Every structure is written in C-alpha cells, then in structure tokens.
Amino acid sequence: MTIEKDEPEAALEPRVGPAPEEGPEFHPYHHPAAGWGAAKSVTRFLLREKTLVDGPRAIMKMNHENSGFDCPGCAWPDDTKGLRLDICENGIKHVTWEMTGKRVGRDFFAAHSVTELAEWSDFALEDQGRLTEPMVYDPDADHYVPISWKNAFELVGRTLRELDDPNQAAFYTSGRLGNEATFLYQLMARELGTNNLPDCSNMCHEASGRALRASLGTGKGTVDLKDWETADALFVFGVNAASNAPRMLTALSEAYRRGAQIVHVNPLVEAAATKTIVPHDFLDMALYKTTRTSTLNLQPRIGGDMALLRGMAKAVLEQSATDPKALDREFVERHTQGFEEYRALCESTPWEEIEHQSGLSREDVLKAARVYGEADRSIVSWCLGLTQHEHGVDTVREIVNLLLLRGNLGREGAGPSPVRGHSNVQGNRTCGIDHRPAPAFLDRLAEVCGIEPPRAHGLDTVGTIKAMLKGDIKVFVGMGGNFALAAPDSPVTYEALRTCELTVQVSTELNRSHLVHGRRALILPCLGRTEKDHQRRGVQSTSVEDSMSMVHLSVGMKRPASRQLLSEPAIVAGIARAALPDSETPWQWYVEDYDRIRDTMAKVLDGFEDFNRRVRLPLGFRIRQPARELVFLTPSGKAEFSTAPLPDVVPEPGTLALGTMRSHDQWNTTIYSDDDRYRGIRNLRTLIFMNRSDMRERGIDDMAPVDITSTARDGSRRSLKGYTAVPYDIPRGCAAGYMPEMNVLCALGDYSTQSDQPIMKHLKVTVGPAA
C-alpha cells in the first residue's frame, strides 16, 4: 500500500490549559492524526501538570496485561500481541489529569462558597485537582465542610432508611466503575428494593443494546480485535476515532497496509478518516511517514445512515439476481427469519428516496455497496453518531440486516462492532447496572445472594430526571461521572437535582455536579484507576470489560492522592451497611478481598464461571457471545431481519439538523482546553460548525456571532446566544457543536421512543445573526 511522507505538524501547535486572552482562531487541519501533534500535546500536558516522573511511569504501565492499570478513558481493547506502548494522547491526558499533584481539601472549600464556585468554568473546577476528604454541604454557610466517613455513611443510610418507598432513590453510574464495585452497587440497590439504576448507557448506546438483542439475542457486538486484523472491509459509521477511540488508529493503519478496504461514514470527515502516524511506529515517526486510514469517505446528512445502509442492501439484492455469490443464500435460509419481507421492503424502496434521505448520490451508495459485495469478510462498526437519534434502534438493526445478507456473522473477520465510549460502560451493564433487568438474572441474584430483588422495571436517566422534577426521587447517588453536565436540557436537569432531599457524588475531582445539588449534599472522594487499592488482604485488583467483551484485571501503581480516599467497593459497602443494618450480605468481608466478590459474581453472571482463574490469564478472558456461535436467543431461535420504514430526516426549510459532539481536547465532560486541534480550532468552544452555503443563505459571515434556537417536540424553544459560526465541510442542512455546552438545546422530552435516549445527535435548530 502507499505510505506517504508528511511534514511535521506545525500549523496548529497543541496547547493545554485554559485559552489565553486571545481571539478564536480557525485553520483547517490537514495533518495526520496522532503523530507528532499528539506527542507535542502530551509533552506539554505532562509539563503543565508537573508529572514528568509519574507520567512516563504510568505510560509504561497502562494497558499492560495483569500487571498494569486499565486506561480510564475509552473502551478500545488492549493489543493482543503484547505491545508495550498501547496508549494514546487522550488516554495519557486522562491519566495525567488523575495523577495531578493539585489537591482540593477543606482549606479550598473554606475559601470558596458554592455560589462562587458555580460561576467558575468547568475547566477551572476540575483543574483544581484531586478531592482529598469527604465533604458535606452546610446550607447556612453555603460552603462544603469536612465530615467523617462514618458520619457520611450514616447520613446516606439514615436518609435511605427513612424513605417511604425505596423507589424514591436512584443510583446512577458512569462507565469508569470497575466490575466488582458495579456488582456490589446493583446488589445494594436491589436489596434496598429498587431497580432505579440509570447509567451513561441510557444516554449513549442504549439503542445498540436493544437493537442487537432484538436482531441477534445479545446486547453486544460479536467481533474481537483479531477480527479487525483479518477483515477484508471495515465500515466505520458515526465514529470520531482520533479523539474518542484513538487506539483504533493502529487497527485502521494496519488494515490499510494489508490491503483491506476502509469506509468511513460521517457528516464530518474527521482526522482519523484521512491519515495517521501511529506514535509507537518509531520509524514512521522519525521519517514523518503517514499511512492512510480510509479508502472511501462518505458524508451523509445527519440521520441519513439508515438510508445509506438500506441502499447498500438494495444493491446487494439487485446484484443477486444475476450473481449467485452476491447473497449467502445458505446462511440466510439456515440462520435467519424474515428475509422475504426484508427483500420486498428493499425492492419497494425507490432509489430516489434513498438518495433524498441519505443526502448521498446513488453513485456514492453503490461505491459502498461494491466494497461490501467484493469483500469476503466485513465488519460494521459504529458509535454515537448512529445511536443518539429517534430511529437509532432501527439504524443498528439495519446494520445487522446488511451483515446477514452475506453471512457476515459467526466467522472470523466479520460481524457488528459497536464502539463503546467510557472504559467500563459495557462491564457496568454486564454486571447488573440495568433498570430493566432480565428475570433470569434476578432469579440467580436471589438464589446466590439470598435477597428478594424487585421485579418491576426501574427508571433510566430521562425517567430519573422527570421523577426528580415531580418530587418522586428524593435521593440521588452518582457513582462517578458528572451527571449534571452530561444529561440533556441542562437548566431542567439542574432544577431536578435541586429538588432532591440528598445528592451524593462519588468522585475524584471537583465538577459541576457538586455545585448543582439537593438540599443536603455529600462529596465522597474515591481512588482513581491509577492508584493502589490497599485492603485488609493486600493490594486489590479490579476487572473491566472492553468494547469487545474481553474482561481483564487492572492494578493501580501509584500512592493514593490522600490517605482518606476509599475505593469504590468500600464506599458502596459503607453506604450499604448504614442503609441496610439487618442485611445478611457480608459487605465488609467482600471489601477485604475482591476475589470474594468475583467468586459470587461467577455464580450469578453468565460467562463469568471460574472468574478468578480466568481473569488472571494473559489478556484475561472473553465473555462468550452466543450469536458468535450462531446461537440466537431470539423468539424464533434465528437472527431476525427487521423491516422498519426509512425515517424522514430531511430538515424543514429554514431549519438545520444539529449534532452535538466532543472536541479533541476533551474527554466526555472533562475539558482540557478550549482547543480542538483536529478540527483546526483554538480558543473557542461556543461555536457551531456550518456549511458555508447555509451560512450565506442566512447572511452569516465566517466567524460571525449567531444565535441558535432549538424547537422541541412540545413546541418549546431553547436558545444559545452569541455563538461563533465556523464554516466547515459538512453537508447542507447540517450543523454541529460541542457538548456539554449545547446540551441545553436538547429538551428533556426529546428522547427516542425506541431507546429512550436523548436525541443529542439530531436536534432541530434555526440559526441566524446574533441579535
């Protein structure tokens, strides 16, 4: 394959920290992803955080099998070949942010009231450093003040005991929680009597799980990293890999070098969809040799992916009329249900409608179809660009439809591959964080743990916010994350949290959720992924599950930031003992040795048999996926074709479809700077990327201030004033901007009726010159 020589990145020097007092800048980015730009950015970040000793030590321990800690960033799988530098720019930033020498303790809170801190930027809040001791809100002084762990647990426990109904509490978790803490957390909630277990999946990949479960009988993808290494064609939908899963760049570059076809589908052509220099390829770094990461880029309109997939399937079926190899008839007949209905649907869908809804020409759709048809083994991968839509479930099911046509399931190098965001978000769901638990799981939990878990469905994220607003949720516990900033409809979410009797945030650093709180509030500081977890029976390890169902151990390397920090399992156990004084669950015994938790998990969770031995194998173990073995746990016992009609995603005249996204110098709600190197932005986050023709039509000049207004389903409006319009290569009728700033535009009622996810990737907005 062709490997190009590129000049070192210089046009847009990476910078960390807050933007200086300069105006915003935009310079289109033409350099490779990763490479020297990433190296420079990491070096500056290590210097700024004063971690020039711990940082390199961490780099050499991160993602190493059974002897290091798992990166607390994305959920991309660890290298299977023993790579010693299986790292990326954002992972290093994430770890360095956690290992900072800055501290937030009682002196800090004594000096700053909550009212004052509420005016600080989100960057400034997290930049103060690590929380060091438990704090409780004093409403009379408007300050957080120290509280002992014993008294903090008693406050939570007493408040939970005094509830009229256990369903007046909600227990949220982000994707950073390890499997052992996750299992204890859901066990505590269910022993209390509630399935109110909202999590970040409710906002991100809920559509993927529901679609895959309906189509294949499993809520997960079926491929692993070895499949990525052997696929003939890779289709990557709605993924900004260079920022959200940077280690994917290695897989993409290796695929290109061995001759695989790589198709990126995204309204924006992101840096990862062009070329890269992988930093651990030292010779390429030295010679500035770039490798392409795509062979075809397609830019559908926002929401147009399903129409593209339908068009690809239509092309395969049309070709099968003259080419018997175009369709795997044996696979379809033996392993699927509903094929004839799907064939009829494709035949009846006119090409004109596919072009209109996808925003692509028939020629472009056929290009993608040819790649798919000529490949013996294909993987289709996707992220939030497909799921945060009203029709997210239907779109993911359309991916499965396409894969089934050519038997791209149950064999090496083929299958569906969702890209999860946070490092253990998939493990959270596997280990019981689910507001709609399966009856079989609850039966085993009851049998093994000796409790009577509730059977009624609980509340998800949107449902929890609605219930808080009505006063039906009185206690909110946030186990990691930054719920106030991550949730939709920010003012409404803030109002909801403030109605609570008690909010509890288990965190490593100060964030917005500590300042948007209930009448009483606790901040409970926990160990980070990089820190040693000392318990009675020695240093403990925790396990995590990556995007491809591999479960492996993570062991911290660094002395904790404070002697007062507790591990997440210890915090869960402390709350549980206080809230359930008569419980027969051996909470403290579990915390003394996490092997004990894993032994119980092995009896409850499918695929975790012999957990303690298997998780210590090189690279850990992979949870079995029945669909991978062509065993489909669906009502028919076969893979199910779906026959959903194409949604109408074309914006009405005068409106734009807006998708929210992260900048490059950001991880979820943690913002490292006001720059977005891969999109050419400096000193600016309050922006909207627009097609220049859409700008001209509205009388908007480049980099001019604009007002943005969204219209919710109920007709209500939400606005952002004075944002900067940036001309960008994005389809007409489409726009994009950063979360969490733009979360305000997503009304609480604007969630998918298929998945209950907020539709943050498909907001209906109008944009005009600033008033």
Folded structure, characterized:
α7 (149-161) crosses α26 (568-579). Helices cover 34% and strands 18% of the residues. It has 771 residues and is of the alpha/beta class. The longest helix has 16 residues, at 305-320. The protein contains 30 helices and 34 strands. The chain is globular, with a radius of gyration of 25 Å. Mean pLDDT is 92; it is low at 5-19. The chain has three domains: 103-204 and 424-609, 3-Layer(aba) Sandwich (Rossmann fold), CATH 3.40.50; 206-418, Dimethylsulfoxide Reductase, domain 2 (3-Layer(aba) Sandwich), CATH 3.40.228; 656-769, Barwin-like endoglucanases (Beta Barrel), CATH 2.40.40.20. The chain has a six-stranded mixed sheet. Strands 26-33-30-32-31-34 form a six-stranded mixed barrel.
Total helix count?
30
Described by its quaternary structure, the protein is single chain
Rg over C-alpha atoms, rounded to the nearest angstrom: 25 Å
Order of strands across the biggest sheet?
A: 7-6-19-18-17-8
Strand content: 15-25%
What structural class do you assign from the helix and strand content? alpha/beta
Task: Report on the biggest sheet.
Answer: 6 strands, mixed
Task: Give start-end ranges of low-pLDDT stretches.
Answer: 5-19
**Arithmetic mean pLDDT:** 92
List keywords for this structure.
771 residues; alpha/beta; Rossmann fold; Dimethylsulfoxide Reductase, domain 2; 3 domains; six-stranded mixed barrel; 30 helices; 18% strand; globular
Question: Summarize this, please?
Answer:
The protein has 30 helices and 34 strands.
Describe the secondary structure blueprint for this structure:
Layout (H helix, E strand, L loop, with lengths): L2 E3 L19 E2 L6 E2 H14 L5 H8 L27 H10 L4 E2 L1 H6 L2 H4 L4 H5 L3 E2 L3 E4 L4 E4 L2 H13 L7 E5 L5 H14 L13 H11 L8 H4 L4 E5 L3 H4 L3 H10 L3 E5 L9 E3 L4 H6 L1 E4 L3 E3 L6 H16 L8 H7 E2 L1 H10 L2 H8 L3 H13 L3 E5 L1 H4 L4 H14 L9 E4 L6 H6 L8 H11 L11 H10 L4 E5 L3 H4 L3 H9 L3 E6 L12 E6 L7 E3 L2 E3 L1 E4 L4 E5 L13 H12 L7 H6 L1 H11 L6 H4 L6 E2 L16 E2 L15 E6 L4 E2 L2 E2 L9 E2 L4 E4 L1 H6 L7 E7 L5 E11 L6 E5 L24 E7 L2
Parallel strand pairs: 3-11, 4-5, 8-17, 9-10, 9-15, 10-13, 14-25, 15-16, 17-18, 18-19, 26-33, 30-32
Antiparallel strand pairs: 1-12, 2-29, 6-7, 6-19, 11-12, 20-21, 22-23, 23-24, 26-34, 27-28, 30-33, 31-32, 31-34
